[in-house]
């Protein structure tokens, strides 16, 4: 996401490269290019103009410190303005009710049902909430079934009523059901509707007035670009929602919705959907998004994802096994699965500063681990536990069973052995000199 915008902004900043100071002339030339880049990213024209005017005012008011080049200073100013444009600070959810009620709204196909499941999973696992998903879309035949399938994957109950076509009654009954069953969070999936459909807009307004949710979220497909912003304004005028959810931000989107929507509707972006998996959902951090737009990576979000996938007890056990040189293919497989739980591989790599640009044209397949997993699953339990017993005949059997060739099996086993040696060496580090000796010993082997 934002690849084209990132490239265009980088080219814009090169106008200042080699300049001794910031002047009105070189700033005007740079910002003309920045404004063009924003418009090409489908940013609202008024928002783009206001943004570049703010940057110009701040840039011309700055004294350039000798240690900072004009181009670097401009990047800093643009970064701060991008973060401010997108809301400044992350906006959380109000979950004060008992139960807390979150009402979803948006167009058909915007991703409300999937996001409802993702949010239930996130709040259940990270905050210990006991959610209830409510099927209040009484028009789309597959909506209730879709919600039930999602709910079964995250072990969350669904409330629905066969034959009842009154969504207000369904939601009111669902809240009573939640209270009776000590569920502290109700997430209401409503039907998709157009802002011009008066009857449908009255219906969702009636739901909101009846149950008075703590949060009303507008879910919008970010790939619709500037149309998403216009639709958000129309919905906000009718519903006065509390925040925006941008879905499909991992797609081929130019980013205009993310950059424009906060200014146009004066409501914060609260979450973004970054993939199809149920854990592909992030709290929206404007400053971190500005980092990514300017090619600075997002190491904080990467660490947070790692912590969410991290099992402290399992990590202590792994450390013990590494120290005793007992790391085996079961542990290797477990580490692969932990990485996969963190999300899309290319998205993860792009969070590392400097890597995003380097891999932009490289296709990183999410199935990159598939052949490795197939090889490990083709091993017997004894072979996974004791890799040392895997001789040439066992390797041939493993290759045949995994649908790979003997070279792939040999390569994986060699990589595994090298990884195990390295982990053993690093686990014994007491000081830098010890580390250097271990590294030299590894190279001699």
Task: Briefly say what this structure is.
The protein is of the alpha/beta class. It has helices at residues 3-13, 24-40, 45-60, 70-85, 112-127, 143-154, 167-180, 198-211, 226-239, 256-265, 286-293, 299-309, 312-323, 329-341, 345-350, 355-358, 370-377, 381-385, 392-402, 406-427, 432-444; strands at residues 100-106, 131-136, 158-159, 185-190, 215-221, 243-247, 269-273, 281-283.
Helical run tally: 21
Order of helices and strands: HHHHEHEHEHEHEHEHEEHHHHHHHHHHH
The CATH superfamily of the largest domain turns out to be: P-loop containing nucleotide triphosphate hydrolases
**How do the strands of the widest beta sheet line up side by side?**
3-2-4-1-5-6-7-8
Give the amount of beta strand, in percent: 5-15%
Top-tier CATH class of the largest domain: Alpha Beta
Using the 3D structure, state the CATH architecture of the largest domain.
3-Layer(aba) Sandwich
Could you say how many structural domains there are in total? 3
In whole angstroms, how far apart are the ends?
Answer: 44 Å
Q: Gyration radius, to the nearest Å?
A: 26 Å
Number of strands: 8
Low-confidence stretches: 429-445
CATH topology of the largest domain: Rossmann fold
Give a short account of the largest sheet.
8 strands, mixed
